[in-house]
């Protein structure tokens, strides 16, 4: 069945790129509602923004959603990943600014609060998007594809010149609590050499060594170092799960990304929905439901972070 959160969950912080303070509240929503954002600071006009693939506006280094009236919310990928990984299908996310707070740069603060609050089952069947034909997109920088699989699965490969990152590849079956245990605490990252350039473009204005992993050659500049030796590729997988959540339903298939980012994953969803023969929507039976992210996840599975 579909699920929502048991009650409101509040987060305060600053946006990674805007540097602006924001309060975000995840509220319960009725069955069939889906995930929507609401800009509470917009007093006139349409302030509701759907968390869907076709509301994505191309933006550097994050996922930005925009409605027909021009209201937007950016850097939604971490909270979307947390909702996907915890098995939340319906929620209204209120926010009083243009960007989701970055918190510690990972999804674990969202996951912790969601699981502490708990979920409520709803009297409506869960429908999932089953991949039945492979769909793939390429750019000059990377590629991504979705292919049929019996369980939700993700494989990702990255390549960076900095020795602190280098080449990393990871493959995980994304069933049950895998996201919470393996990916949720992995933080966003950047190269120290790119920081000034980003700030000149009006990006990373809220970034610090506490909410992002900053690397310089073979050195990790952030206090405490890495949470995982392969934290970078784990974070890319976290981002991808959040971006795939914008399909509007959990996906049963194998996502593969090679040097893929937010734009490539969104291109992949456009290609998928432009190919009706590549997928079908099915009601989630007990056997399939048992394989999906978020089933039976417990708070004690959340990784401990410093």
List the helices and strands and how they pair.
Elements: E1 3-5, E2 9-14, E3 21-28, E4 35-39, E5 48-50, E6 56-57, E7 64-66, E8 72-74, H1 77-86, E9 91-95, H2 108-117, E10 119-121, E11 127-131, E12 135-138, E13 143-147, E14 153-159, E15 167-173, H3 178-183, E16 189-191, H4 192-200, E17 213-216, E18 219-220, H5 231-244, E19 251-252, E20 254-258, H6 262-273, E21 279-283, H7 286-289
Parallel strand pairs: 4-9, 11-19, 14-20, 16-17
Antiparallel strand pairs: 1-10, 2-3, 3-9, 4-5, 6-7, 7-8, 11-21, 12-13, 13-20, 14-15, 17-18
Helix pairs in contact: 1-2, 1-5, 5-6
Major beta sheet summary: 5 strands, mixed
Using the 3D structure, state the CATH architecture.
2-Layer Sandwich
Q: How is the largest sheet built, in terms of strand order?
A: 2-3-9-4-5
The CATH top-level class label: Alpha Beta
Structural class: alpha+beta
Mean pLDDT: 94
Q: Looking at CATH, which topology would you report?
A: lpxc deacetylase, domain 1
Total of DSSP H or I helical runs spanning 4+ residues: 7
How many E-type strands? 21
Structure description:
There is one protein chain. The chain is an alpha+beta fold. Helices cover about 20% and strands about 30% of the residues. It is built from 7 helices and 21 strands. The protein has helices spanning about 75-85, 110-115, 180-185, 190-200, 230-245, 260-275, 285-290; strands at about 5, 10-15, 20-30, 35-40, 50, 55, 65, 70-75, 90-95, 120, 125-130, 135-140, 145, 155-160, 165-175, 190, 215, 220, 250, 255-260, 280-285. A hairpin with a 6-residue loop joins strand 2 and strand 3. The longest helix has 14 residues, at about 230-245. Pathway: Glycolipid biosynthesis; lipid IV(A) biosynthesis; lipid IV(A) from (3R)-3-hydroxytetradecanoyl-[acyl-carrier-protein] and UDP-N-acetyl-alpha-D-glucosamine: step 2/6.
């Amino acid at each position: 069945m579909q699920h929502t959160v048991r009650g409101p969950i509040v987060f305060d912080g600053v946006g990674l790129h805007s540097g602006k303070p924001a309060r975000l509240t995840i509220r319960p929503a009725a069955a069939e509602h889906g995930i929507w954002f609401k800009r509470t600071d917009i007093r006139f006009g349409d302030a509701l923004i759907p968390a869907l693939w076709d509301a994505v506006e191309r933006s550097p280094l994050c996922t930005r959603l925009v409605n027909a009236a021009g209201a937007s919310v950016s850097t939604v990928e971490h909270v979307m990943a947390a909702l996907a990984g915890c098995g939340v299908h319906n929620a209204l996310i209120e926010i009083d600014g243009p960007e989701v707070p970055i918190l510690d740069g990972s999804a674990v603060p969202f996951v912790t609060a969601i699981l502490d609050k708990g979920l409520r089952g709803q009297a409506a069947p869960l429908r999932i998007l089953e991949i039945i034909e492979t769909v793939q997109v390429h750019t000059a920088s990377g590629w991504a594809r979705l292919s049929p699989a019996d369980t939700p699965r993700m494989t990702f490969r990255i390549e960076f010149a900095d020795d602190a990152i280098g080449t990393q590849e990871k493959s995980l079956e994304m069933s049950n609590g895998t996201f919470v245990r393996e990916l949720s605490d992995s933080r966003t990252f950047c190269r120290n050499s790119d920081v000034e350039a980003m700030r000149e473009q009006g990006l990373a204005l809220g970034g610090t060594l506490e909410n992002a992993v900053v690397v310089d050659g073979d050195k990790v500049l952030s206090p405490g170092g890495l949470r995982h030796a392969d934290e970078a590729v784990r974070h890319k997988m976290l981002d991808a799960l959040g971006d795939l959540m914008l399909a509007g339903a959990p996906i049963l298939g194998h996502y593969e990304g090679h040097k893929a980012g937010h734009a490539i994953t969104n291109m992949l969803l456009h290609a998928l929905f432009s190919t009706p023969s590549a997928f079908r929507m099915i009601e989630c039976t007990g056997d399939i439901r048992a394989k999906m992210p978020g089933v039976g996840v417990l708070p004690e599975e959340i990784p401990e972070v410093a």
